[in-house]
Amino acid sequence: MFKWLQKKNQKQGSTKDYIHMQGDHAVLVDSVKVSESAGKANEAIPIPLGCWVWMELPGKQERLLGFVYLDSTAGLSVQGGLESAENVEELAGYIVRLRMPLPPIRQLTFEEISNRGLPPTPSWLEHYGPQPDPGAAWHSDPHLKGLLHASFPDDIQVLVHDGEPRRTKREPELCWVRILTTEQGPTRRYIFIQQATTLTKSEFDRKYEPNDVVYVAKLLNTPHKLKTVCQGDTIRFLAGGGLQHPLHVSTQYLQERVRWFIAPCDKCGMGECLDPPSTMIELRFKTLSDPEIKMAEPFSFSSFCPRCGGHQFLSRDEKEVSL
Ligand SMILES: [Zn+2]
Predict the structure, then answer these.
(1) What residues of the chain score a pLDDT lower than 50?
(2) Could you tell me which residues come within 8 angstroms of residue 136 by beta carbon, excluding any fewer than 6 positions away?
(3) Which of 61, 151, 294, 304 is paired with 221 by a 20 to 30 Å CA distance?
(4) How far apart are the first and last CA of the chain?
(5) What is the pLDDT of residue 103?
(6) Does 298 sit behind a cis peptide bond, omega within 30 degrees of 0 on the bond before it?
(7) Is 139 helix (H, G, I), strand (E, B) or coil?
């Protein structure tokens, strides 16, 4: 496993306080109350982005009535006022930064919005620039569950790379990207090899179900050593398929992936590779001339997993599964 990733995995700790307040009516957060609120919180509740909400405030008798929005610097926030506010203009004095797990929060019903005479969006929202699409499919994508940034719901860490480190001599880097959209890619198919997994066939089929979603995103970080990608680039990545982190993929990889079945790594379960299969073949079978490789249908080969050094197996034919 990449050394930096090993250290990161060891460091992952508990969630920090999820809430703080600022603005005209700053409220000190009582850590005991925060814990109580967090205890009552329901992590399964989707973030009601772009909605009017009721929210309990630690140490306050009255609820907050506010609107959930994205502050491009501070993250996911609720701005509003106490429920006793008499008009909409008063609903702007409190700003609460949301962290996971969410505090007790409930979306207003249509009737409540109507009774209070609330507009679809508050007038101050325009000051915060473009807002994420609350209906974006990736917010509820099971493959991204728990991976999206708690305060920036379109942001996610992706393993960005130049290709296999054994070829490029440069390790992948974990970088933040902002998802822009999704598109249909090649259907990624996998081979079940009983000796190479501890999963039963049905568990394997659930974990490695054929998936054709490709995420398109903007790279937010400046990679330290990578040469093929820069901050601001539009990249594509995949999720699911036994990946610990979503994986950056090249256009060539996507074009070739449709022709291959992959038996995931027998140690870590990674079901994708860093280089397109043709590049992997070229690196591993230098003694074969190109025509020989091209003629070898069906072609299959095993490869060391780029993440942990286990074994992956690639085949152009699902039946070609002998190791
Ligand atoms: Zn592995």
Answers:
(1) 11-44, 322-323
(2) 154, 179
(3) 304
(4) 23
(5) 73
(6) yes
(7) helix
